[in-house]
Amino acid sequence: MSRTLAAAVGGAAGAMALVGIVIIFVWYCILHKRSVTNSSEPSLQGQSIEMSFSGGVSYPPGLQEARRFTLEELNVATKNFSNINLIGYGMFGEVYKGLLHDGMIVAIKRRPSAPRQEFVEEVHYLSSIRHRNLVSLLGYCQENDLQMLIYEYIPNGSVSTHLYGSGQVASARLEFKHRLSIAHGAAKGLGFLHSLNPPLVHMNFKTANVLVDEDFIPKVADAGLQGLLNRIDDAGPSSRMTTDDPFLDPEY
């Protein structure tokens, strides 16, 4: 065999070996990617796809996460709903700050009302909606003709307070970068509500319902509360809507 032919055969063998190594490497990468993908996919075995309450309304899984609080533990948390812990008034009624026995600080909204099954159903649904830019509904209480909603406590107040002060007079201006960040985060929260199926429309969005935590991360409050009241109250939405609300879409 001549040197030229030997060189050609050797080169071809080397090229084939290189191609074989590349094929084996690609095949290994594909198998490895498939195994990682399969191992990272959550198993749905044993999970409920949906839960149905009375009235034929179906909600997504996770609704059992809503906690039922007792009136006794909420009395302890608020020192019998002392005026010292009264932090405001809202659409649902009085709002109190409370300290649970496990050390968690919560906001408790309270109003007088007879117990309703629809109230429990709506709370289960709304408590399953969680997002970084939404105030989380933790649970409820229905005792002694009182209805209460228990939310996570957001320590830094509302955007309205930071813009206008508690007396609606600005005490310290929010820097533009903070305003932009708050607007962006609030939009993310609303966008998440609108992405639900069916979409959840806030119906009472305003600066007083955008809270900020200690890091000035915005959290939209009262999401779904208007719809809850519309469902459980016989008076209907017209009793709580005013035509001069500057934040209300005129078409609504």
Offer a quick outline of the entry.
The protein has 252 residues and is of the alpha+beta class.
Can you tell me about this structure?
- This protein has helices spanning 3-40, 71-78, 117-127, 159-164, 176-195, 225-232, and strands at residues 51-52, 58-59, 67-68, 86-89, 94-99, 105-112, 137-143, 146-152, 210-212, 218-220.
- By secondary structure, it is α+β, with helices and mostly antiparallel strands.
- The protein has one domain (51-239): Orthogonal Bundle (Transferase(Phosphotransferase), domain 1).
- The protein has a six-stranded mixed β-sheet, with helices on both faces. A two-stranded antiparallel ribbon has the order 1-2.
- The N and C termini lie far apart (92 Å).
**Would you identify the regions where 5 or more consecutive residues have pLDDT less than 50?**
33-64, 235-240
- Structural class, from helix and strand content? alpha+beta
Give the spatial strand order of the biggest sheet. 3-7-8-6-5-4
Average residue pLDDT = 77
CATH topology: Transferase(Phosphotransferase), domain 1
CATH class: Mainly Alpha
- Can you tell me the number of structural domains? 1
Global Rg: 28 Å
CATH superfamily: Transferase(Phosphotransferase) domain 1
Number of helices: 6
CATH architecture descriptor text: Orthogonal Bundle
What about the largest sheet?
Answer: 6 strands, mixed
Compute the number of strand runs.
10
**End-to-end span in angstroms?**
92 Å
Name the helix and strand elements from N-terminus to C-terminus, one letter apiece: HEEEHEEEHEEHHEEH
User: Helical proportion?
Assistant: 25-40%
